[in-house]
Amino acid sequence: MSSLCKTYFENENVSLKDYYSDNIYTWCTNCGNYGIAAATKRALVAENIEPKDTFMCFDIGCNGNGSDKIGGYRLHGLHGRVIPVATGAALANRNLSVIASGGDGATLSEGIGHLVHAIRSNYNITFLMHNNCNYALTKGQASASTRQDVPMDSSPDGTPSDTLNFMNFVLSLGASFAARTFSGNVQQMTEVIRAGIRHRGFSVIEILQNCPTYNKDTTHEWYQDRIYDTIEIKDYDNSNFDSALNISKDMSERIATGVLFANPNSVPFDQRLENRQNYSTELVDEVKSYNQISQELFSRFI
Protein backbone atom coordinates (compact mmCIF):
# COMPACT_ATOMS: atom_id res chain seq x y z
CA MET A 1 0.00 0.00 0.00
CA SER A 2 1.41 3.41 -0.99
CA SER A 3 2.05 5.99 1.74
CA LEU A 4 -0.59 8.29 0.18
CA CYS A 5 -3.20 5.54 0.12
CA LYS A 6 -2.32 4.56 3.67
CA THR A 7 -3.05 8.06 4.98
CA TYR A 8 -6.63 7.66 3.77
CA PHE A 9 -7.16 4.82 6.25
CA GLU A 10 -4.93 5.62 9.22
CA ASN A 11 -2.80 8.44 10.50
CA GLU A 12 -0.89 9.44 13.60
CA ASN A 13 -3.93 10.04 15.81
CA VAL A 14 -6.90 8.80 13.81
CA SER A 15 -7.97 5.94 11.57
CA LEU A 16 -10.96 5.27 9.35
CA LYS A 17 -12.51 3.01 11.98
CA ASP A 18 -12.82 6.03 14.30
CA TYR A 19 -15.43 7.42 11.91
CA TYR A 20 -17.29 4.12 11.70
CA SER A 21 -21.02 3.98 12.43
CA ASP A 22 -23.19 0.92 13.07
CA ASN A 23 -26.09 2.52 11.24
CA ILE A 24 -27.00 1.05 7.86
CA TYR A 25 -26.86 3.20 4.72
CA THR A 26 -30.34 3.86 3.32
CA TRP A 27 -29.50 5.49 -0.02
CA CYS A 28 -30.64 3.99 -3.30
CA THR A 29 -28.33 1.52 -5.00
CA ASN A 30 -25.60 3.35 -6.97
CA CYS A 31 -26.36 6.70 -5.32
CA GLY A 32 -23.43 9.10 -5.40
CA ASN A 33 -23.71 9.65 -1.64
CA TYR A 34 -21.84 6.40 -0.98
CA GLY A 35 -18.74 7.84 -2.62
CA ILE A 36 -19.18 11.21 -0.92
CA ALA A 37 -19.38 9.59 2.51
CA ALA A 38 -16.24 7.56 1.81
CA ALA A 39 -14.32 10.58 0.54
CA THR A 40 -15.33 12.71 3.54
CA LYS A 41 -14.07 10.11 6.00
CA ARG A 42 -10.85 9.59 4.07
CA ALA A 43 -10.20 13.34 3.90
CA LEU A 44 -10.61 13.73 7.66
CA VAL A 45 -8.27 10.82 8.33
CA ALA A 46 -5.70 12.06 5.82
CA GLU A 47 -5.77 15.48 7.53
CA ASN A 48 -5.27 13.72 10.88
CA ILE A 49 -8.47 15.20 12.32
CA GLU A 50 -10.06 13.24 15.15
CA PRO A 51 -13.86 12.89 15.46
CA LYS A 52 -13.83 14.99 18.65
CA ASP A 53 -12.35 17.87 16.64
CA THR A 54 -14.93 17.66 13.87
CA PHE A 55 -18.43 19.10 13.63
CA MET A 56 -20.54 17.98 10.68
CA CYS A 57 -23.85 19.62 9.82
CA PHE A 58 -26.36 18.09 7.42
CA ASP A 59 -29.28 19.69 5.64
CA ILE A 60 -32.61 18.04 4.89
CA GLY A 61 -32.42 15.85 1.80
CA CYS A 62 -30.62 12.70 0.73
CA ASN A 63 -27.35 14.17 2.02
CA GLY A 64 -28.95 14.30 5.47
CA ASN A 65 -29.42 10.55 5.50
CA GLY A 66 -25.67 10.39 6.08
CA SER A 67 -25.81 12.32 9.36
CA ASP A 68 -25.83 9.19 11.52
CA LYS A 69 -23.53 7.16 9.26
CA ILE A 70 -20.30 8.78 10.41
CA GLY A 71 -18.63 9.23 13.79
CA GLY A 72 -18.06 12.63 15.37
CA TYR A 73 -20.25 15.52 16.44
CA ARG A 74 -23.13 15.81 13.97
CA LEU A 75 -26.30 17.82 13.56
CA HIS A 76 -29.17 17.18 11.15
CA GLY A 77 -30.82 20.56 10.67
CA LEU A 78 -33.64 22.24 8.79
CA HIS A 79 -34.14 22.56 5.04
CA GLY A 80 -31.86 25.25 3.63
CA ARG A 81 -30.50 26.26 7.05
CA VAL A 82 -27.31 24.21 7.35
CA ILE A 83 -24.92 27.10 6.66
CA PRO A 84 -26.02 29.33 9.60
CA VAL A 85 -25.78 26.36 11.97
CA ALA A 86 -22.27 25.59 10.75
CA THR A 87 -21.37 29.28 10.95
CA GLY A 88 -22.37 29.44 14.61
CA ALA A 89 -20.24 26.42 15.44
CA ALA A 90 -17.24 27.71 13.51
CA LEU A 91 -17.37 31.12 15.20
CA ALA A 92 -17.93 29.66 18.67
CA ASN A 93 -14.97 27.28 18.49
CA ARG A 94 -12.29 27.85 15.88
CA ASN A 95 -10.54 24.65 16.95
CA LEU A 96 -13.24 22.60 15.25
CA SER A 97 -13.10 21.53 11.62
CA VAL A 98 -16.63 22.38 10.52
CA ILE A 99 -18.09 20.64 7.47
CA ALA A 100 -21.58 21.41 6.19
CA SER A 101 -23.49 19.36 3.62
CA GLY A 102 -26.52 20.45 1.63
CA GLY A 103 -28.25 19.53 -1.60
CA ASP A 104 -28.99 21.65 -4.66
CA GLY A 105 -32.66 21.88 -3.72
CA ALA A 106 -32.17 23.40 -0.26
CA THR A 107 -29.05 25.39 -1.13
CA LEU A 108 -30.43 27.11 -4.22
CA SER A 109 -33.92 27.75 -2.87
CA GLU A 110 -34.59 28.83 0.74
CA GLY A 111 -30.89 28.48 1.58
CA ILE A 112 -29.56 30.73 -1.16
CA GLY A 113 -29.45 33.84 1.01
CA HIS A 114 -27.33 32.03 3.60
CA LEU A 115 -24.96 30.90 0.84
CA VAL A 116 -24.56 34.44 -0.50
CA HIS A 117 -23.71 35.94 2.88
CA ALA A 118 -21.42 33.07 3.90
CA ILE A 119 -19.36 33.72 0.77
CA ARG A 120 -19.45 37.45 1.44
CA SER A 121 -18.35 37.03 5.06
CA ASN A 122 -15.88 34.22 4.32
CA TYR A 123 -16.69 32.08 7.35
CA ASN A 124 -14.18 29.30 7.98
CA ILE A 125 -16.36 26.37 6.87
CA THR A 126 -16.08 23.62 4.29
CA PHE A 127 -19.40 23.41 2.45
CA LEU A 128 -20.19 20.31 0.38
CA MET A 129 -22.99 21.02 -2.09
CA HIS A 130 -24.43 17.66 -3.21
CA ASN A 131 -25.69 18.44 -6.70
CA ASN A 132 -27.87 15.68 -8.13
CA CYS A 133 -29.98 18.18 -10.07
CA ASN A 134 -33.30 17.40 -8.42
CA TYR A 135 -35.22 17.17 -5.15
CA ALA A 136 -34.57 13.46 -4.74
CA LEU A 137 -35.88 12.94 -1.20
CA THR A 138 -39.31 14.23 -2.26
CA LYS A 139 -39.31 12.07 -5.39
CA GLY A 140 -37.75 13.92 -8.24
CA GLN A 141 -39.00 17.48 -8.66
CA ALA A 142 -36.81 19.80 -10.73
CA SER A 143 -34.40 22.03 -8.82
CA ALA A 144 -32.61 25.22 -9.88
CA SER A 145 -29.72 23.11 -11.23
CA THR A 146 -31.86 20.73 -13.33
CA ARG A 147 -31.15 21.00 -17.05
CA GLN A 148 -34.07 22.43 -19.01
CA ASP A 149 -34.26 19.50 -21.42
CA VAL A 150 -34.52 16.86 -18.68
CA PRO A 151 -38.03 15.56 -17.95
CA MET A 152 -38.77 15.22 -14.23
CA ASP A 153 -41.70 13.70 -12.37
CA SER A 154 -43.34 17.08 -11.70
CA SER A 155 -42.30 18.59 -15.05
CA PRO A 156 -42.52 15.85 -17.72
CA ASP A 157 -41.87 18.36 -20.51
CA GLY A 158 -38.78 19.73 -18.77
CA THR A 159 -38.52 22.82 -16.61
CA PRO A 160 -39.23 26.19 -18.31
CA SER A 161 -36.88 28.03 -15.92
CA ASP A 162 -33.24 28.71 -16.75
CA THR A 163 -30.68 26.36 -15.23
CA LEU A 164 -28.45 27.88 -12.56
CA ASN A 165 -24.74 27.11 -12.96
CA PHE A 166 -23.78 26.76 -9.31
CA MET A 167 -20.01 27.09 -9.63
CA ASN A 168 -20.24 30.09 -11.93
CA PHE A 169 -22.68 31.64 -9.45
CA VAL A 170 -20.45 31.27 -6.38
CA LEU A 171 -17.42 32.56 -8.28
CA SER A 172 -19.37 35.62 -9.42
CA LEU A 173 -20.00 36.32 -5.72
CA GLY A 174 -16.25 36.35 -5.05
CA ALA A 175 -15.82 33.02 -3.27
CA SER A 176 -12.34 32.63 -1.76
CA PHE A 177 -12.31 28.88 -2.55
CA ALA A 178 -14.36 27.19 -5.26
CA ALA A 179 -13.99 23.57 -6.33
CA ARG A 180 -15.99 21.03 -8.27
CA THR A 181 -15.66 17.27 -8.13
CA PHE A 182 -17.56 14.11 -9.11
CA SER A 183 -19.03 11.48 -6.80
CA GLY A 184 -17.73 8.75 -9.10
CA ASN A 185 -14.11 9.75 -8.40
CA VAL A 186 -13.49 9.10 -4.71
CA GLN A 187 -9.78 9.87 -4.88
CA GLN A 188 -10.32 13.29 -6.46
CA MET A 189 -13.16 14.04 -4.04
CA THR A 190 -10.90 13.15 -1.11
CA GLU A 191 -8.15 15.50 -2.25
CA VAL A 192 -10.56 18.33 -3.04
CA ILE A 193 -12.21 18.05 0.39
CA ARG A 194 -8.77 18.02 2.01
CA ALA A 195 -7.89 21.22 0.17
CA GLY A 196 -11.18 22.76 1.31
CA ILE A 197 -10.50 21.87 4.94
CA ARG A 198 -7.02 23.41 4.78
CA HIS A 199 -8.29 26.64 3.21
CA ARG A 200 -8.80 29.53 5.62
CA GLY A 201 -12.24 30.82 4.72
CA PHE A 202 -15.49 29.61 3.17
CA SER A 203 -14.65 26.61 0.98
CA VAL A 204 -17.39 25.87 -1.54
CA ILE A 205 -17.20 22.39 -3.07
CA GLU A 206 -19.78 21.37 -5.64
CA ILE A 207 -20.08 17.59 -5.87
CA LEU A 208 -21.69 16.46 -9.10
CA GLN A 209 -23.59 13.24 -8.42
CA ASN A 210 -25.99 11.05 -10.27
CA CYS A 211 -29.43 10.26 -8.90
CA PRO A 212 -30.13 6.72 -10.18
CA THR A 213 -33.81 6.76 -9.16
CA TYR A 214 -35.23 10.14 -10.18
CA ASN A 215 -32.83 11.77 -12.64
CA LYS A 216 -32.53 9.28 -15.50
CA ASP A 217 -30.85 11.68 -17.93
CA THR A 218 -27.95 13.12 -15.93
CA THR A 219 -26.41 9.72 -15.22
CA HIS A 220 -23.04 8.56 -13.96
CA GLU A 221 -22.05 7.85 -17.56
CA TRP A 222 -23.26 11.28 -18.69
CA TYR A 223 -20.77 12.89 -16.33
CA GLN A 224 -17.96 10.48 -17.19
CA ASP A 225 -18.22 11.48 -20.85
CA ARG A 226 -17.85 15.18 -20.04
CA ILE A 227 -15.79 15.85 -16.92
CA TYR A 228 -12.08 16.55 -16.90
CA ASP A 229 -9.59 17.60 -14.22
CA THR A 230 -7.98 21.03 -14.23
CA ILE A 231 -4.59 19.29 -13.91
CA GLU A 232 -5.08 18.43 -17.60
CA ILE A 233 -4.92 22.14 -18.45
CA LYS A 234 -1.32 23.12 -19.14
CA ASP A 235 -0.06 25.69 -16.64
CA TYR A 236 -3.49 26.16 -15.08
CA ASP A 237 -3.24 28.55 -12.11
CA ASN A 238 -6.06 28.13 -9.62
CA SER A 239 -5.16 31.43 -7.96
CA ASN A 240 -6.25 33.21 -11.16
CA PHE A 241 -9.87 34.23 -10.63
CA ASP A 242 -10.61 35.05 -14.28
CA SER A 243 -9.39 31.63 -15.44
CA ALA A 244 -11.60 29.90 -12.88
CA LEU A 245 -14.64 31.96 -13.86
CA ASN A 246 -14.07 31.16 -17.52
CA ILE A 247 -13.77 27.37 -17.17
CA SER A 248 -16.71 27.19 -14.76
CA LYS A 249 -19.20 28.25 -17.44
CA ASP A 250 -19.43 25.05 -19.49
CA MET A 251 -21.81 22.54 -17.88
CA SER A 252 -22.88 20.69 -21.01
CA GLU A 253 -19.86 19.58 -23.07
CA ARG A 254 -16.62 19.86 -21.05
CA ILE A 255 -17.10 20.17 -17.31
CA ALA A 256 -14.07 21.26 -15.30
CA THR A 257 -13.41 19.57 -11.95
CA GLY A 258 -10.78 20.04 -9.27
CA VAL A 259 -9.89 23.18 -7.31
CA LEU A 260 -10.95 25.87 -9.77
CA PHE A 261 -10.03 28.80 -7.54
CA ALA A 262 -8.26 29.29 -4.20
CA ASN A 263 -7.38 32.75 -2.97
CA PRO A 264 -3.96 32.46 -1.28
CA ASN A 265 -4.61 35.73 0.56
CA SER A 266 -7.98 34.73 1.99
CA VAL A 267 -8.77 36.23 5.41
CA PRO A 268 -11.61 34.41 7.23
CA PHE A 269 -14.34 36.31 9.06
CA ASP A 270 -13.06 35.66 12.59
CA GLN A 271 -9.70 37.24 11.75
CA ARG A 272 -11.42 40.39 10.49
CA LEU A 273 -12.97 41.17 13.87
CA GLU A 274 -10.92 43.97 15.41
CA ASN A 275 -12.56 43.57 18.83
CA ARG A 276 -11.34 39.94 19.03
CA GLN A 277 -7.72 40.49 18.11
CA ASN A 278 -6.42 40.43 21.70
CA TYR A 279 -8.39 37.37 22.80
CA SER A 280 -6.68 33.99 23.11
CA THR A 281 -9.87 32.21 24.20
CA GLU A 282 -12.66 30.87 22.03
CA LEU A 283 -16.21 32.18 22.35
CA VAL A 284 -17.33 28.85 23.71
CA ASP A 285 -14.82 29.23 26.57
CA GLU A 286 -16.31 32.59 27.53
CA VAL A 287 -19.88 31.39 28.01
CA LYS A 288 -20.86 30.38 31.53
CA SER A 289 -22.80 27.18 32.07
CA TYR A 290 -26.50 27.32 32.83
CA ASN A 291 -25.80 26.06 36.35
CA GLN A 292 -23.45 28.97 37.03
CA ILE A 293 -26.00 31.48 35.76
CA SER A 294 -28.80 29.89 37.79
CA GLN A 295 -26.72 29.93 40.96
CA GLU A 296 -25.82 33.59 40.47
CA LEU A 297 -29.47 34.56 39.93
CA PHE A 298 -30.59 32.44 42.88
CA SER A 299 -28.00 34.06 45.17
CA ARG A 300 -29.58 37.47 44.58
CA PHE A 301 -32.80 36.37 46.22
CA ILE A 302 -31.43 34.72 49.36
UniProtKB/TrEMBL annotation:
GO terms for biological process: cellular respiration. InterPro entries: 2-oxoacid:Fd_oxidoreductase, PFO_beta_C, THDP-binding, TPP_enzyme_TPP-bd. GO terms for molecular function: oxidoreductase activity, acting on the aldehyde or oxo group of donors, iron-sulfur protein as acceptor; thiamine pyrophosphate binding. This is 2-oxoacid:ferredoxin oxidoreductase subunit beta. Residues 73-207 form the Thiamine pyrophosphate enzyme TPP-binding domain. Residues 211-275 form the Pyruvate ferredoxin oxidoreductase beta subunit C-terminal domain. Pfam families: PFO_beta_C, TPP_enzyme_C. Keywords: Oxidoreductase.
